[in-house]
Amino acid sequence: MESRLSKIEKIRQIPVGWLEIGEKEKNVINEILESGRISEGKKTYEFEKKWSEFIGAKYCVATSSGTAALITGLTALKYHYKLENRPKVITSPLTYISDANAIVLSGFEPIFVDIDPNTFNITPEGIEKCLKNSNDISKFSIVLPVDLMGYPVKLDQVKQIAQKYNLHVLDDAAEAHGTTYKGKKCGSDADIGVFSFYIAHNIQAGEMGAVTTNNYDLYLLSKKIKTNGRFCECETCTRDKGFCPSLNSYKGEDDFDPRFFHDIIGYNFKTMEFQAAIGIVQLEKIEEIISKRLEIVKYLNEHLEEFSHFLQLPLFQEEVSYLAYPIVIKKPEFISRRKLRTELEIRGIETRPLFGCIPTQQPAYSYLKEKYSGKLPNAEYIGANGFYIGCHQYLTKEDLDYIINSFKDILK
Predict the structure, then answer these.
(1) Are 139 and 210 members of one domain?
(2) Selection from 95, 89, 111 nearest residue 372 by Cα
(3) pTM for the whole thing?
(4) What's CA 333's distance to the chain center, in Å?
(5) Is pLDDT at 347 greater than 60 in this prediction?
């Protein structure tokens, strides 16, 4: 009996994310191999400089992953502002689980507020409502919004609320490389910004993250935290023992080596030269990448508009650097997410669920389910009915037309 799969005349493979390794990428990798230095060094420092310049922040610290960047940023805020007795962090329930994990692993407690159903982001109104309804505002310390799918949070309003309640802001811009809000790039205007350069993101390095900040003290702390609390992580200290130019000091008359002297507790979140080098090459193409993704979202929206009465298509905004093409099923009684995703996958179009509502739909946080059940309606609905497909720069017009025709074939 002929299988369902074999009945489809043309099977295309359209992944959510893709990276084509060109000659330039191969050349820089070979340079690193020939140099004999594969742990972070000159290429990492170069990437940090170029990324901070692109984002519009004064400082950047590269880490081994986006999750490592989150933990580093949270820990830096915790140490610098002495937040040990203020454990509550307001954040999004609809995001990749690393945000909640990083909060918990850094010794904080996640407090979830509902999202805007169109941008998937927590709102200033939701943040303030949470604080006003709290029995003990003094326990709150940080607001951690997530610029999900590239959509920017209303950071100016979030910062006003944070200032009003003496809170700090960590902007998770991992999915918003180059997105701007009121003239500023995501990750440039909070106490700390964090990024991920995972394979499906707009700048793709495999596994790498970054912390950005305009605060020199937080910058130095982040560098220390990611290297096991090393006394100093400036470039000179990693080469020359004894003298620390960043701190402008010697350590007495002892045989002092700042590489092996640790004055705080930290982690090993260093990256490698390979990822940084690929990131540098990718960064040279960032404007082209953003532009191509915008064109793809616009094209798909125009040609899938006929299904907008039961599919919520992504909100199109010129300022957004799109991570992917998110879709929310408005009428699951017409077609379920599982059914639609299965049919797309059969046709070679890779899909991903839109993460899920962390406290009510993720088993790791089942201990919070009773507390939050029914209180996050937008996040719960989208967590159950939202998904995304790729909109990366390697897709051709033929790929896009195939996606459109596949939707038409399934939904008609």
Answers:
(1) yes
(2) 111
(3) 0.93
(4) 32
(5) yes
